[in-house]
Specification:
Length: 315
C-alpha cells in the first residue's frame, strides 16, 4: 500500500524493524543503500548524500515533500533487525534471479562458505565486524550471513549459518558445500551430512593426521582424472586432478569422506619464465559415481568465488 508522503510501494509485513517506529512512513532504505554504494560510511554521511540530491533524484527515491534529518535516519536504521533483513533480502534476490537455463545432467548446486571482515564497520570498542557468509556460486547471491561474536571465531557460527541457509532454501538436501581449510572440522562434516548435504573441503596443517593420510596415498599409481590449461593475466596455469575412492578399512580420519582428491597447480609467469608448483589435498563426501574428476575440478574453484563476489562494505 502507499503511505502518505511516501512515493514508494511499501510492504509493512516484510520490513524488519524493532520497536514502535513505523518503517513504512519513511523510504529510508533505498537511499541508505545508494549512499553507502556512493562511499558514505556514517549515518551523517548518508543524510548529507540524500540532502545533496536534486528534487528529481529525491522524488525517484520516494521523497516528495520533506527529507529526513540525520537523527531520523539514525533512529530508523539502528532499529533494523539485521539478521531478518539479510534473510528477507536473500529471498527477494532469489525471486529476481533470471530463470535458469537448461541445466546439464550432472548439475549440482554449490554453496561457498567463507569469512569476511566488513570495510568501514566497527563496534563501539573499535573492533572490526567479521561475517561468515554463504554464497550461491551459480547466482552470486549471498544467501545468509552470521556476525562473528567478539572474542570468537568462524567455527561456532557454522551450524547457525546452515540453519539460516535452510530457512532461505527450504532444504539442504543434495547441496554441495565448499569452504576453506579452517572449516575442515569433524563437527562441520556431521552437521552437513545430517540434512543430506555434501562437503568438499581442503585439508591442511590444522588436521595433521588427516593431511598425512592423504599425502601418503599412492598418488603416483593413480591415473590423471582431469587436466586443464589456462592462459591469462600474464601467466600459464595447468591444473591436474587425481581422485581415489577411500577403501582403506576404517576410511580416513574424517567423517563421511568418500573420496580423496589431489589437485596440482603449475603456474608459469610468461614474462620471466618463473614456474611454481602447488599441491592441494581435499576430501569430498560424494562417491565417485556422483563426483567425477571433471566435477571436482570445477567445484574446487568455486570457493574463491565468494572472495571476489561478496565484497561487503558497511557503515
Amino acid at each position: 500500500m502507499n503511505k502518505p508522503g511516501c512515493g514508494t510501494r511499501c510492504r509493512p509485513s516484510r520490513i524488519p524493524v524493532r520497536g514502535a517506529v513505523c518503517a513504512t512512513r519513511l523510504p529510508a532504505y533505498s537511499p541508505s543503500v545508494c549512499a553507502v554504494m556512493a562511499g558514505a560510511s556514517s549515518f551523517s554521511a548518508i543524510a548529507d548524500w540524500l540532502h545533496d540530491l536534486d528534487d528529481i533524484a529525491r522524488a525517484r527515491l520516494g521523497f516528495i515533500r520533506v527529507v529526513p534529518a540525520t537523527t531520523t535516519m539514525w533512529r530508523l536504521l539502528t532499529r533494523l533487525d539485521a539478521d531478518l533483513l539479510a534473510t528477507v533480502l536473500a529471498g527477494w534476490l532469489r525471486t529476481r534471479t533470471a530463470p535458469a537455463v537448461p541445466r546439464p545432467r550432472r548439475y549440482r548446486q554449490v554453496i561457498a562458505i567463507d569469512g569476511k571482515t566488513l570495510r568501514g564497520a566497527r563496534r563501539g570498542d573499535g573492533s572490526q565486524i567479521h561475517l561468515l557468509s554463504a554464497l550461491d556460486t551459480s547466482t552470486g547471491i549471498v544467501l545468509a550471513q552470521i556476525t562473528i561474536a567478539t572474542k570468537s571465531n568462524e567455527i561456532p557460527a557454522f551450524a547457525p549459518l546452515l540453519d539460516k541457509i535452510e530457512s532461505v532454501l527450504g532444504s539442504l538436501s543434495d547441496i554441495l558445500f565448499v569452504a576453506d581449510a579452517l572449516h575442515t572440522q569433524t563437527n562441520h562434516a556431521t552437521e552437513i551430512a545430517a540434512p543430506g548435504a555434501y562437503l568438499l573441503i581442503p585439508v591442511k596443517g590444522n588436521q595433521p593426521t588427516l593431511f598425512a593420510q592423504l599425502k601418503d596415498l599412492p598418488w603416483a599409481q593413480i591415473p590423471i582424472g582431469d587436466q586443464r590449461r589456462d592462459r591469462g593475466h600474464g601467466r600459464r596455469e595447468t591444473r591436474t586432478v587425481k581422485a581415489v575412492t577411500l577403501t582403506t578399512p576404517g576410511g580416513i580420519a574424517f567423517p563421511h569422506a568418500q573420496q580423496a582428491v589431489r589437485i596440482t597447480r603449475t603456474r608459469t609467469i610468461t614474462t620471466s619464465g618463473k614456474t611454481s608448483h602447488e599441491t592441494a589435498y581435499l576430501t569430498i563426501s560424494l562417491p565417485a559415481a556422483n563426483a567425477h574428476p571433471t566435477d571436482l575440478q570445477d567445484w574446487a574453484r568455486r570457493e574463491w568465488l565468494i572472495e571476489t563476489s561478496s565484497t561487503t562494505s558497511a557503515m
